[in-house]
Amino acid sequence: MNKEEKRAARRTRLERFRKGKFYGILYDKGVLYFLLSFLIPFAIMLYAFGIYGIHPFGDRQILVVDLWHQYYPFFRVVHEKLTSGGSFLYSWENGMGSNFLSLISYYAASPLNWLSVFFGEGNERDALTFILAAKIGFAGAFFSTFLRYTYKRRDFTICMFSAMYALCSYTLGYYWNVMWFDTIALFPLVMTGIVMICREGKWKVFTFGLALSLIANYYVGYFTCIFSVFMFASASIIECRGIKDWFRKLFLMIRSSVLGIGLGAFILLPAYCGLQLTYSANNTMPREMSFYEDWKKIFANLLSYNEPTKVDGLPNFACGMLAVLLFGVFLLSFGIKIREKVSSLIMLGIIAVSCNMNILNFIWHGFHFTNQIPYRFAFIFSFVLAASAFRALDIMLKKGIKIYQLILMPIAPVAVFVLNRMVEGDAFKPTQAFKSSIVITIAFWLIFIAAKIFPFKTAKRRNVLLTFALTAAVLSEFVSNAQIGVRTVDTTGYYDYPASYGDVKPLLDKVKSSDKDLFYRLEMTQTYTLNDSALYGYRGVSQFSSAANVSVTTMFKRLGLYASEAGNRYYYRTSTPVVNSLLGIKYIIKKGGTLNSEGWVLEEEDSSGSTHLYKNRYPLSMGFMVKDKVLLMEDNGGANPFEYQNDLIRRVSGVEDKLFVPQPVALVEYDGLEVTKNGYGNYTFQNDSDEPTGSALYTYDCIDGSYLYGYANGTGGTCDSLEIKCGDDVVDSGKLIESYPIVFPMGNGQGGETSTVRITSNKDHKTGNFKLMIYALDTKIFDRAYDELADEQLNITEFSDRKIRGELTAKEDGILFLSIPYEKGWKVYVDGERAETFKLLQAMTGVKVSEGSHDIRIEYTPEGFPLGVTISFVSLGLIILAMLHDRRRLRRRRRTAPAEEAPQEELQEQPPFNYRAEVYDQVCESLIGEDVGRVEDTEVILYDGSKKPEKEVDDAKSESDHSVQGD
């Protein structure tokens, strides 16, 4: 076989391949570009992780900020439930027990989290890293779907621009908020669905895309819902044919939105009910309008190679200098309709103003002021900007590069560079990011100039080389940006997390295997994260999340534990035996040494390395009988924790003697402070020394038969450090009151011994106030009170996440106190009859129980879940009916429509700019010549579409053949 025959055979095989189904799927259906658009950002992100040694490429990890404290611990619980079983409706490893469905609806409802089942125990963080990279990859893949459908291109350019969206500065600065990126990835798919509704009346992509977005993360899904209104307005103006068609598409949009939201009702409704229990439900809209940032700074931040905002700072709008370069072409180029340009400008303006204006920012964030990260919807700006830039390149590839377009290109980048100069003023010094942005911008511009002046044989070859040259430059830019993003967000040590896990895990396993009780709680004396129970895997009382029950937070504050309503957190560090018993804490773990206090109530059980396990000698079950006087207890926020606990013990046990008694100061010494006493335990200080801090040392006499406990409050952070000693033994020390007040034990001292507390002022405060109150706990009174409560405990015989069964013998009519945070989803049955539940201590669950022996059954179903499931099934049924109706109507139309009208219908289905704008561009070229262009754009209607524009259609088809098809 000679060379000519071999070439002919290759051409034949190629032609056969192009006519085959696989080619159609790979190219015509866009599967190849979808896969490439996924793999490019996925690989770039993994490469950046690898450069900075993120495991398994090194000994670092991506866990930082709240990903360290919140998102990963909750992800670990999800992984545990997926691999070991357990209900997704409730978890006992968060905050004494919490509505887990509501919690994961924000933090961990990603369908991709199911992939974690392929990663074994101990590899959950690796699973999270790869899942995050996959989410970023899908952001590119779905953006390619949007570009391919909206602009009817099937070439490699969509892969290049997909990377620009997937790796925009928003992604690179905020990727540690892993739970947002499912919906950010799905956002372009939802927008594609809107275009499909307006162009063809196809509604299924929007319906299912919106449902999946809301299910994956309702918070970012809310942003999608808001922007869908603007996107529909824009797409309907561009695509709809007449007012009748517009109303039909509006009906489809509304119906699809309702059905999409309805599909997600099974998780959205419980999430909404759960949010009503949180602090965020109390936000109020601002009355006066204000702006956060200087507008010049906002748009100057479009610079590439900049460090993205990680927590607080400017909005992350940047998506590469190519998008900025082409934006001027988009705005002023012929061939793009004015309505397109105006729509894009309006959408960009809405996002920019919404980020910077307090009222709109408040509305966008769910009528809530955020705790840091104030511009959480800024990714939409990058979406619109990248899509607009792609539209400009689309026109250039179809019609060729014009001289006026080359002139227009530098306008937007130069404006960004000038804004950077104006922001800095006379102190301006070009940063590396500034210089690199200029270099890459010039590189892009030179590529376009070369493509214009170089004598290519065909337009197809020009487009191919232009595309690959631009792609190489874009990828080099975003490989650098990805590394800058990872460096900015930072990393932490892989093998240091969780702290002392090798010591803690054996102790947890021993308790699990040896303790015969079906339910107990355990806590640690030091917090590593603010969700240690979820991180290490035990039933604890601590929680830090936006779903934190504000009533439980308030109760913790009253009891003297760390708690903050606005901070959405309550957590354990130290406390009194009363609190430990009340909350059902049976075990305490101390890392880094032994406890030097509460030896009378905590018995050491075991140790592993430097970590010690202690057992509470006075445990109480999840449920126990209390006196009905507890119903009269008021929420006295002014009382100190000891007086609050005195009142509580008196009401629940009937023991009238005071459990805690205030103690006088035996001796006080000041070092650099002048202190004035303003009543018992309340002090004012002034630091007149040259030292940044001062301290006060208070000494107290210990008492036989009692143990000392203290309460300290730094009052606004004016004092932050405590050192507690009993004799020469250090009981506790550190910045214990830097953020919140706390109750603490003061050692094992008895009569003849002393305990001391040194309180140190904050270096940033020369004057201020603090509280220091010391009380003695009488052990005999505590024993009497405990005996009263322990005598009527709930004996748990069956236990699971959602169902508890037990036996209870009540000596008299009273209240069953359940140390379960009160929710309407809990139902309690006494001897098979449902009993009314109510709040105790404004946070816990109570039930009235009569004298005698009873069978107690407790069941949980999240509030709103049954109704939500019903709505989801009804919505799914309606969707199926709508699909069947559409199919039947399509069949009827095919039977009745004349065959000769089919080409006209096909033409009308094409987007307006596929033929009308191109005709307009051709006329402009004939008027102004090939190389000179006008910078104003006036829409010209050359025909009304009633006749078939045959020549223009043929031209459009011939130009579409010039696209890059894997040449």
| Distance separating the two termini | 26 Å
**Main beta sheet:** 6 strands, antiparallel
Number of helices: 32
* Number of separate strands: 31
Shape type = globular
- Beta-strand fraction estimate: 15-25%
Low-pLDDT stretches: 902-967
Helix share of residues? 40-55%
Mean pLDDT: 89
Structural class computed from helices and strand pairing: alpha+beta
Integer-rounded radius of gyration: 34 Å
Features:
967 residues, alpha+beta, 6-stranded antiparallel sheet, 5-stranded antiparallel sheet, 32 helices
What does this protein look like?
By secondary structure, the chain is of the alpha+beta class. It has 32 helices and 31 strands. Strands 13, 15, 16, 18, 21 and 23 form a 6-stranded antiparallel sheet that branches. It has a 5-stranded antiparallel sheet with strand order 14-17-22-19-20, with no helix packed on it. Helix 3 (31-51) packs across helix 7 (157-166), helix 6 (124-151) crosses helix 7 (157-166) and helix 7 (157-166) runs parallel beside helix 22.
